Amino acid sequence: MTVEATVFKGSSSGEIVQSTTTLETPKGSQVLVRTTHSGICGTDEHFKHRDMVLGHEGVGIVEQIGEGVVALSVGDVVGWGFTHKTCGRCEQCLRGQDNFCRAPGGEVYGRANLHQGSFGSHAVWDESFLFKVPAGVAPEHAAPLMCGGATVFEIMQTYVRPTDRVGIIGLGGLGHMAVQFFTKAGVDVVVFSGSEGKRAEALAMGANEFYATKGVQTFEGVKPLDHLVVTTNALPDWNPYLGLMKPKSSIYPLTAEWSNLVIPIMPIILGGMSIVGTVIASRANQKRMLEFAARHSIRPVIEEFKLDKNGVEEGMQKLPMSDREPPTREYLATSFDKSASAVRAYTDRFETAYARPALRKSTQYFEEVPITATFVAVFAAFAFVPVAVFIVFSLFSVLSIFFLALSTAFILSSTLLLFFTSLLLLTLCVAFFFALCTTLTLVSTYVGYRLVTLTKNRVGRPYPRRVVPVPRKLSEESESVVVVESEATDSETVKQESSD
């Protein structure tokens, strides 16, 4: 029996869109949950521009179960978070760190099950990733714990000892839950917030110390920290905090944003510090977190809205977002996500509208009339053979024609290129030959002209003479000196100058 679920999706414009989706009857270990409460997380803000159902902090009541469900019953109050399914076979899964499973087959919020989420009336999830909500935790308080509470509990359970001293930056959604979990575990908690306005609230939750950070360059008189948990919506200025860290201490940046982590490296190296990434919690810690919250009466501070389009929009507007301008890479990632989500949406729609009903009808037909169904299947298989042959032959023919056209075009273009190249070379040769002949003609004409001119000027003409005066002493010995000039002109005459 299918269920028509009302869901609230993101869109390319960021506007919340109300829609419907068809959910199949649970099979195997699947469970149909009617959603009663949902938390709103900063991650939902990142995904609101995608065509997908939003919400991953869900709590609801089990309405239907598959035949393979063993741990849940109809009427149970359950919650779910960021992780929907894991492979169960990789190293991380086998070590109990299934929140870090990245193997094929894993399903997480934003990558799979885009047709359903906690922003909706119903959803179908695997039994293994639904967690019973203890009686000591109200559903409205359990919803924010499924992501934010699980994230800070994972740090506390995995890395922190009761004797440690933990600094928490920020007292928002994550921060105020971290203060409650850590103080109940006996940890010495130090809260850092922008102003004095949250001092009373932090101390009331159990924090041991509170420091306002606005305008502070160096903290004076603060004891060193073993751990620093960053829960703000934007990364802080690290310089005031690095001086507070003990050697071999750890920093946990939980800020979910696209910017780079820029931090002074020398204090990290000299102090042997660790920067630790973490996401949500393993299934084991998710269960322990709910039990811990029930035992110690941990209650998130909440503001409630109706689970409809207006309520979702109003709740989303309450999220404190960073004023940082998203980088180009974030826009590209968003565009890619939009395209990928569109493909996944069409795939899911095809699976829901056609593939699953067809498979269900086929299975039902085989169960009712197995002999007839087998005959029809065999006949259909044989009937498909000529169709398949025709399709293959058609593809082969089309590809052959295509490659023939490409070959013809290549040969034609090569021929034209060769023709025009030859024409260009021939033109260059003719031009060179013409220039050479012209040059030789001009040079030979000039040389001939000069020879004729010189010959004409020398034939039958005596050498001209000119008398050059000499000193008196020399003239006594000789009456005159005659100098012969081979380059005399026609107008020159031979003159003789006598001595005194």
Automatic annotation (TrEMBL):
<dbReference type="Pfam" id="PF16015">
    <property type="entry name" value="Promethin"/>
</dbReference>
<dbReference type="InterPro" id="IPR047109">
    <property type="entry name" value="CAD-like"/>
</dbReference>
<dbReference type="InterPro" id="IPR011032">
    <property type="entry name" value="GroES-like_sf"/>
</dbReference>
<dbReference type="Pfam" id="PF08240">
    <property type="entry name" value="ADH_N"/>
</dbReference>
<dbReference type="GO" id="GO:0004497">
    <property type="term" value="F:monooxygenase activity"/>
</dbReference>
<keyword id="KW-0862">Zinc</keyword>
<dbReference type="InterPro" id="IPR013149">
    <property type="entry name" value="ADH-like_C"/>
</dbReference>
<comment type="similarity">
    <text>Belongs to the zinc-containing alcohol dehydrogenase family.</text>
</comment>
<feature type="transmembrane region" description="Helical">
    <location>
        <begin position="425"/>
        <end position="449"/>
    </location>
</feature>
<feature type="domain" description="Alcohol dehydrogenase-like N-terminal">
    <location>
        <begin position="29"/>
        <end position="134"/>
    </location>
</feature>
<feature type="transmembrane region" description="Helical">
    <location>
        <begin position="399"/>
        <end position="420"/>
    </location>
</feature>
<keyword id="KW-0503">Monooxygenase</keyword>
<dbReference type="InterPro" id="IPR036291">
    <property type="entry name" value="NAD(P)-bd_dom_sf"/>
</dbReference>
<dbReference type="InterPro" id="IPR013154">
    <property type="entry name" value="ADH-like_N"/>
</dbReference>
<dbReference type="GO" id="GO:0016616">
    <property type="term" value="F:oxidoreductase activity, acting on the CH-OH group of donors, NAD or NADP as acceptor"/>
</dbReference>
<feature type="transmembrane region" description="Helical">
    <location>
        <begin position="369"/>
        <end position="393"/>
    </location>
</feature>
<keyword id="KW-1133">Transmembrane helix</keyword>
<keyword id="KW-0472">Membrane</keyword>
<keyword id="KW-0812">Transmembrane</keyword>
<feature type="transmembrane region" description="Helical">
    <location>
        <begin position="261"/>
        <end position="281"/>
    </location>
</feature>
<protein>
    <submittedName>
        <fullName>Phenol 2-monooxygenase</fullName>
    </submittedName>
</protein>
<dbReference type="GO" id="GO:0008270">
    <property type="term" value="F:zinc ion binding"/>
</dbReference>
<keyword id="KW-0479">Metal-binding</keyword>
<feature type="region of interest" description="Disordered">
    <location>
        <begin position="481"/>
        <end position="500"/>
    </location>
</feature>
<dbReference type="Pfam" id="PF00107">
    <property type="entry name" value="ADH_zinc_N"/>
</dbReference>
<dbReference type="InterPro" id="IPR002328">
    <property type="entry name" value="ADH_Zn_CS"/>
</dbReference>
<keyword id="KW-0560">Oxidoreductase</keyword>
<feature type="domain" description="Alcohol dehydrogenase-like C-terminal">
    <location>
        <begin position="173"/>
        <end position="294"/>
    </location>
</feature>
